[in-house]
Structures are given as C-alpha cells and as structure tokens.
Amino acid sequence: MFIGIDLGTSGVKAILLDRQGRVLASASQPLSLLPQAPQNVLWREQDPAGWWAACERAVKALLAAAQGQGIAAGAIEAIGLAGQMHGATVLDRAGQVLRPAILWNDGRSFAECTELERRVPTARKITGNLMMPGFTAPKLLWLARHEPRVFEQIAKVLLPKDWLRFQLTGDYASDMSDAAGTMWLDVGKRDWSEELLWATGLTRAHMPALYEGTQITGVLKAELAQRWGLRQIPVVAGAGDNAAGAIGVGIVRPGQAMLSLGTSGVYFAACDGFHANPERAVHSFCHALPATWHLMSVILSAAACLDFSAQLTGYADVAALLADAELRGAEDISIDAPLFLPYLNGERTPHNNPDAQGVFFGMRAGTTRADLALATLEGVGFGLCDGMDAVDGCGVAAEEITLIGGGSRSAFWAQMLADITGRRLVRRQGGDVGPALGAARLARIGVAANSGDHASLSEICPVPQQIAAYVPNPQRHAQYAQRRKKFSLLYQQLLPVFSV
C-alpha cells in the first residue's frame, strides 16, 4: 500500500492506495493564507510551519483510519508527494525557513519578470514559457531587490511539496514537473539552466537535486517512522499538483486532456514532445513521467469566483448559488445578460496580466442575483475557453476532456462548459480524489522494480470508469460564442483602466 500526500493552498490531503487501485482511507487538514497589509493587495503567503503541522495531522488521521480497517502500518511501502506549484520557500545554511513562502497566486513580481527576460533574451526558448509573477524565479529577484538581507542568507530554494520532503527525509530534491514551473529549468533538456539561475543571483548549489517523478529521492527519517509506526519507507519524487492530478485520472499519453475546476482553473493536455506557445501565456512543462511533457493553460480564479459571488450576493453557500443559476439558466441565453470577468487575482493564460480585475458588467434595474450567479459561471467558462484556445494553438488538441475538481460535481456547470467550449467533457471515478491519488500512484511506480510489481503503466494509471458525459449543444454553443465575443471585447476595453 502507498501513501499519497498533496499539499494544496487550502489544505493538506493524504490518501492510502492499495495495489488494486482502491483508495482505502483519506484524511485532510485545512490551511489558510497569512493576512496581508492593505497596500500589499497582490501578496499571497503561507507559513511553511503550518504546512508541516497540517501534514502531520493528516498522516496521523490517515493511519488511524487505516488501523480502524485492520490495515497494519507495516504494510505501507512508500510515500509520494504532490503540491501547489511555483511557491518560493527559502532556507538558510541550517535548513531554517527565512521568511513566509511566496505562493503561486502572488502577483508582486511583474517588474522582475520584465527584467529577467531582459537579462536572458532566450528565456522563453529555454523554458518554453512566458515569465510570469506566479513563477518562482521572479519572486527570488523580488527578494534580492526588496529584502536583500533575506536574499543574502539563502542557501536553498524549495518548492512547497519539496519543503515537506525535506521535513520527511532531510533531502533536498525535486521532480521535473514541479521544477518546470520555476522558470529555472531547461524544459526540453530536463535540467537546471545555469544562465537563468545566474540571472537571479543563484547557482546550482541553491537548487535541489532533480529526479523524474517516479524515482526515489530518499527514505523516511527514523524518528518520523518511529513516531508514525512506519518502516523507513522510500519517499518518491512525485509531481506538481496538476501533473499529479493528471496521473490520478490516467492522463499519461498524448491526446489525453483534463480540465480542473479548483480554486484556479487548469486545462492540461499531455503531449509527446516539448511544445510551446509562450506569447499566449501557455505553460509548457515536463510531465511526471520520464520523457513526457504537457501543456497547460491556467486561470487564477475558477471555483474561487463562485465563493466570491455567493458571499457578495448573499447566498447561503455555493450550492444555493448553483441552484439559483440553474433555474435562471433554463431560459434562453440572452446576449444582453450581465457579464462577469473572473480576474479576481489578475490573470495568467492568455493575458498574463496581474492588474486584471473582476468585473460585473451590464447590470440594469431589473438584474437579480440569479443573473449574477449565472454570469459568474459563464465568465469562468469563457476564461477557461480562452486558455484552451491558446493550447490548441500549439497543435495539441483533444476532442474529449476529463473534468476534475470540486466544481466538476455540478452537472449544470459541466454542461454549460461543454456548450461554451464545444468539447465533450467526461467525469470519471476518482476525479474528486485529486493530486494525492497521482502521488500515491507515482509512489507505487517508484518502488515497483524492487517489490516484484510487474504491472504496466496502463494497469497502475488506468483511465477511470466514466460517471457522466456532457455533449455540447450546437445551438447553445453558437449563442455562447456571441456572448464570448462581448466578454473578450469588455476585457480589451477595460485594459487601460486596469493599469491606472
């Protein structure tokens, strides 16, 4: 059996997976962002100590649940890790955290992105990506400029899940999929770029060792093994959250794709080589499996927009918002209905604009909160569709897309997204488990050679059984296309206002 641990933005989740692919137990613990001063509106930070405390609680709860089912801790063979990408966790020579971690949705380092691309004109060719504030490298340049005393003490830079690894094993290590999101990796060569490290005042010595997602990076510390009642089992490299989520739903081959409706919204398409479209802010990363890559578009606020609008308009919860939107959505689609721009935290694909803002537009005296609920769902869908089009521009497209994440549980929203995108969307078993499932699968692959496990990749990472399918309605797709033109025009017209 295998433990998968996923360090998310809002919580830590741990699952226990057996060799039949069944999730036998799970546990989770919440996380929160650190409060920021009003002038630091673009800042998003967390305390790594909170990650570790939540991880320990989740693992202990998981093991207790397993014990309740008669599962011995000694039967657990390995741990795999997944986690939120791009975060900057900086450590001194003693391995102590120097400051709170700067997260993936932090937008403070836009000026540093421009400076890094000036210093390394070939940065987009090396990384396959446009330099964005969410990535790790510009965060370090920001620290060098604004917190020089902290920067001078930095001995190691770790991604969030890799800091958990350091706590688990004492090793400085990362995997290719997560490292690809730093903007220090030569994504085609799957190795650190010394030129990009130099541009941020760093060297290879500041970086963790690189592994494929299926490789063992170390073993559980003796004191932790004793405390948790485990053997000193291997810890496998794992993956960034999106690549791990893809592994969890069997997205391992070219032509497969998934759409994740979490706090952020992600379209993920597996590919057989290194493709890129940085001018439209498409992310080109290594996948969690050797010699594989993937493309990804990201909107920073997806399901988060539903929470925002529910609170803003006085709904008891998101479920109430969805129910009201569904009643309103039973009517014909109106070109003149209110629109919503979902840019509550700026935006990545395809705009790369940290100054973009959330907007309700087109309200009249008769506008109801149900109209705004429906506009919120549509607006997120239009934003996702913009990103999918950018990925298609690389020549990598999928006719059928697996839908995952908390937002995928709404059949109404899923059908709306199918109608907006014109793609067949499918919900599958295990889609709600998330990246922790992929982490556990990678753990199994990592120890397979030493355990006599001869299962194939297809057997370990199967495409799960279909739960529901959503086929686009051609008439509604055409109507949404007209609404989407107005949505795009609204963003363009507001661009000068966003930057004021």
Tally of helical runs? 17
How much helicity do the residues have? 25-40%
Using DSSP, what is the number of strands? 23
**Structural class designation:** alpha+beta
What is the mean pLDDT? 94
Query: Shape from CA axes?
Result: globular
> Segments where pLDDT lies below 50 for 5+ residues?
none
Distance from first to last alpha carbon: 55 Å
For the largest beta sheet, what order do the strands appear in spatially? Answer: 17-18-16-15-21-22-23
The major β-sheet equals: 7 strands, mixed
Query: Rg to the nearest angstrom?
Result: 22 Å
Strand content: 15-25%
Q: Could you describe the 3D structure shown?
A:
This protein has 500 residues and is of the alpha+beta class. The chain is 38% helix and 21% strand. The strands form seven sheets. A seven-stranded mixed sheet has the order 17-18-16-15-21-22-23. Helix 10 packs across helix 15 and helix 11 packs antiparallel against helix 13. The relative contact order is 0.13.
